[in-house]
Amino acid sequence: MIKLNENFDKLKKNYLFAEIAKRTEEYKAQNPNADVIKLGIGDVTLPLCSSVLDAMHEAVNEMGETATFRGYGPYEGYEFLRTAISESYLRYGIDIQPDEIYVSDGAKSDTANILEIFQTGGNVLIPNPTYPVYVDSSIIAGRNICYIDANESNNFLPLPDYSVKPSIIYLCSPNNPTGAVYNKKQLKEWVDYALENQSIILFDAAYEAFIEDPDLPHSIFEIEGSKECAIEICSFSKGAGFTGVRCGYVAIPNELKVDGKSVGEMWLRRQSIKFNGTSYITQKGAAAALSKEGMEQARKNINYYKENAKMLSETLKGLNIWHIGGKNSPYIWLKCPNNMDSWEFFDILLTKSNIVGTPGSGFGTNGEGFFRLSSFGKKEDVEKATQRIKKLQF
Ligand code: PLP
To answer: Looking at residue 55, what is its pLDDT?
Structure first.
């Protein structure tokens, strides 16, 4: 008799974004003239840069000619994009070869799907709070989750707990939702811990393009020993504005072996069974985003968001509101004033300032009492929002 995967019943009902939308709509219905500013979304708002557009237009034209038309591409991505990604690692002094890159349709699916190639059993270690996909995909896969506390006392950058023996460790830096970024010494601790426990680190670098501090690592592969214990998952979504285009990649060093078997080969096997590749047009756009002009143009967009983040951070500083993130990340993670809980602060911000943010409690229990502001909005809106926040009396 057919039964549904009962692990779905174990998923926590996460009403975060539905509840945000509901409360916002209710408020707008009661206050139709309110100019509500949304600083809650994690989606980019600026258009694709011209290098990317030109490359994609050209690729569309190629698809219209018999001589240059392309059908299914390689499961692991076209060589031109894998080479461009490999070369982009050289900026950070990292040697990742094209045959260690696996192109995909984005980091969300990769962070979830990669679990499939590892045997079930064993613990998945996930920081709390976290990007919810790590938790939900581990639950659906029937894996045991151990949480590690990210909190104010460790600046939301937890370090290994040697009493826990995980098989898989999810790390995200710069972090969503907290904006916290690990330094090299901290990541070295994670790498040493993973090597000691024969665990694999799944390192989500989706926001690496926002790092400006030259001492902070953009990639786990900047850390000695990481090639024997880490997989990096990255995306064109946030750095190049590809959230609607869809392109990401997984970097698996050839040295990475489990029981003598190549992890990269295993991932390619999985991809070739379940994935038919990212479109040629998209991959041409992604390669253009990594060209010199593409990077310069993307940098302008990133700097635009970073200016927004700076304005928000300075406003919070002026009000003595504890917060992290914002500098090397598009997110600002603040402590709700007067010990308010996350939803209380949401309501105050919505009703008193007409600003919508994201309650930290939606990202895990340790997010309670905290709040995420995103810098992916319009500069004029952020300027207005900072003026309104300054007027708030806590
Ligand atoms: N990883 C993190 C930490 C994210 O915050 C997001 C999206 O918000 C993703 C991955 C998903 O990225 P993509 O658009 O490449 O699927």
So the answer is: 98
**Distance (Å, whole) CA 269 – CA 21:** 40
Q: Is 242 in the pocket of ligand 1 (CB under 6 A)?
A: no
**Cα distance between residue 226 and residue 215, in whole Å:** 18
Give the residues of the chain that fall short of pLDDT 70: none
**Distance from CA of residue 208 to its chain's centroid?**
9
Residue with tokens 């050839």: 254
Q: Would you state the pLDDT for residue 15?
A: 76
Ligand 1 centroid–CA 69 distance in Å is: 31
How many angstroms does the Cα of residue 150 sit away from the middle of ligand 1? 20
107 Cβ below 6 A of ligand 1: yes
The conformation of residue 336, written as its DSSP 8-state character, comes to: P
Residue 243: CB within 6 Å of ligand 1?
A: yes
Q: What is the pTM of this model?
A: 0.97
Counting ligand 1 atoms within 8 A of each CB, the residue from 131, 203, 375 with the most, and so the one to mutate, is 131
Listed residue (280, 298, 379) closest to 70, CA to CA:
280
pLDDT at 393: 75
Token pair of 373 as six digits: 């502001």
Residue 242, pLDDT score: 98
